[in-house]
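debug: dumping io for the single-chain case to check the tokenizer round-trip. Nothing else runs in this session.
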Amino acid sequence: MNTKGVRNNVWLIYGYTFATGLFFDRALWVLFLVERGMNMAQVGLLESLLHFAILFFEVPTGIVADLYGRRKSMLIGTFISLFYALFMMISGNFFTFTLAFSLMGLAITFKSGASQALLYETLQAGGKESSYTKITGNETALFLLSLSIAQWTGGLMAGLSWNLVYSSIIVAQLLAMVVVWFVKEPERVAVPEEKKTTLQLWKGQFVDTLSIWKKEPSLHRPVILFISVVTVMTVVIFYAQEYLKRQGFSTGEIGFIFMAESLLGAAAAKLAHRVEEKIQFSKLFQVIYFGFLLFLIIFAVVNGWVSVLLLYAMGMLSTGLEPIFNNFVQAKLTAQVRATFFSLISLLTSFGIMLIFPLFGAVVDSIGFVYSFIGLAVLLVLMRVVLMNRGPRAA
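debug: decoded output
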């Protein structure tokens, strides 16, 4: 692929990422469900159902992307997203909402590993793999920017009509489908092999992915610790809404706080490649991990705007880590299993979120937020200690 082709693909992937991030109900769906008659138990069940769908479909859809093409997988995922918005708009009962959330989880799995693999292979085809961290950082920044815009404008739309919110999501996803349609998927070198059935291909794909895990022990520690950070940060972000509310912040202030958090995360992702160029991965990973851990402990015991600043710091560290981690992993994978492997990482992350979310909520009800957040910090310490003497020092 020539330089022009690489540049065109990168810009199209940027456009796709921005458009797919425009879910205008991002910070509002709980309020929407409550207005439609759902209680908090049902809301929690729907959120768990979404992660269960991700857990169930993540690896199979990653295999689809590896076997049949990343672009096709992204198109399928975006198409399914249309039905999420449609069902949310017309739903009035719990059953239909379960369909919407299940479809959303399925859509996420089709898009997750495929978009990362397509971006890396585009750069690889043009001999520009060294730019991956910078480019994927830009992509993450664009996604967070679109998320911020969706949070801000979604609130304005909801004040007029919920139908406007969900019809706008449909328009954004249609635009994303148009953009990805023009992406040129790089050719992959075909590996000569005997003709196999679909079942044999899928089984072989999963076995090949596991063999990469076994052959690359340097991946073990960073992958597990990365999943730990992402899981903990997801829990912190979700429950911080109520945590800040109990501190006396108004709903409007909380909305602004999380919009700013997304923008700061975008800046961190954008600048990640500059830091990566100056510091070795293993050292940088440790600095980010222990920095995140320290901020989490302090966040648990302070109040007011200091806690908000610490929330921003944790968000920037976790978001900045993502493109750096992705680049480290991408370099160790073959094209045949790239999307499947990243889907496996997403699967494990979803499993962690499914496990920690309800447990954390129960602990908060029993002992409060302070000790619960400290408990998350203890969990990160234990993960690091357990992995300390296992495998080569990749992180």
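debug: round-trip ok. The chain has one domain: 3-182+217-387.
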